[in-house]
Amino acid sequence: MTSNVIDLEHLNAMTGGDAELAREVLGIFRHQSEIWGRLLVADAPNEQWADAAHSIKGAARSIGAMALGDACEVAETRGRAGNVAVAEASVLINAIKDHMIDAVENLAKVEHQLSMSEAFKAS
């Protein structure tokens, strides 16, 4: 069972099939996206947006938003290497933001699927 953006099977495995815990993890993701997303600024120091990408990556992978996690990994790796031009940083950051928008937009759908899915009923 998957959403286009969020892998529900992965979320199920990460939360042991506990729907309440899955909803909590989704809430944490939403919160982390809001906080760290503000630090994704292309003309900021590379370390700033690389750290933000790292934090978003962990939150994304915890819910199964793998495309977002992958975009964050690319940006984090490049940002930590240093000396990234603003134009390149913009491309990396925009990729993160595009995937983050998709993931956040899918949260309501996933939360609904959680409430309807037997796979997420606590044993």
Automatic annotation (TrEMBL):
The keyword Transferase belongs to this UniProt entry's keyword annotation: no
Record carries keyword Repeat: no
Signal peptide: none
Gene3D superfamilies xrefs: HPT domain
Domain of life from the UniProt record: Bacteria
Keywords: Two-component regulatory system
InterPro entries named in the record: HPT_dom_sf, Sig_transdc_His_kin_Hpt_dom
Domain HPt span(s) in chain numbering: 43-98
Protein name: Hpt domain-containing protein
Species lineage: Bacteria, Pseudomonadati, Pseudomonadota, Alphaproteobacteria, Hyphomonadales
